[in-house]
Amino acid sequence: MSLRTLALTALCICDPIAKVQAVQSLWANQKDIGLLTNEVIANDASLLLPGRPELPRLIPAQQVPTRTPFTPEGLAALMHAVCHIEFNAINLALDAVWRFPNMPESYYIDWLRVAYEESQHFEMLHAQLQSLGYRYGDFDAHDGMWHMCQKTADDVLARMALVPRTLEARGLDATPLIQTKLRKAATASALQAADLLDIILRDEVGHVAIGNHWYRWLCEQRGLEPVAFYRELAKHYEAPKLRPPFNKEARKRAGFTEAELDYLLSS
Prior knowledge:
Order of helices and strands: HHHHHHHHHHH
Distance between the termini: 45 Å
Shape: globular
Radius of gyration: 18 Å
Strand content: under 5%
Largest sheet: none
């Protein structure tokens, strides 16, 4: 099977540990697997995408309780929330690999690398969560990121605009705020969690940069102005409004231009 077909196979895996292992094997063996960029993979309606375990229970985002790192259970709930984000991010990257044909080879390798790094993040966070006496699935979660993935399933340009560089980029803004709370909690577990988020933030800058690169590449291919067209896409797909504070330094490292940052601040 091709790399893109195997990415779909990994996406369909429900067990988180098995999914992580499949992604890491795919990354390690990518050079021995054919890519077939022009292969149009049938979207089998019988496939339940993405594959995920029965737990956590998915509820509306507004119903997810506030998590505080100042109690043992609150810290575990917070770590579970980040763990859930990373599990979702594996699925988002795998979907970007298999779903969209006729992109340059480097596009598929970029998103496979993102899936691999997100699998590493999930492993780190899940180990931290287990050290607190919990496992992935022990707390409720929401499914907002995958909803946007579904909305943009028919257009790779919309996907690049509204998943990596919109929803995932919010992590660049949120992570320092979470780290501040963790360091105020000042327990050994909270401080260890804050250090893990340093690693994740570093990698996420690179992931958002990949989204920015391919969004701009696609805009150039279609003769579109990136900032103006993003405004149209955000309205058409009802993307969530991004609110400050923004991590301007991280966003600049991820490739956001001054014009894009100005748009964020003015919208």
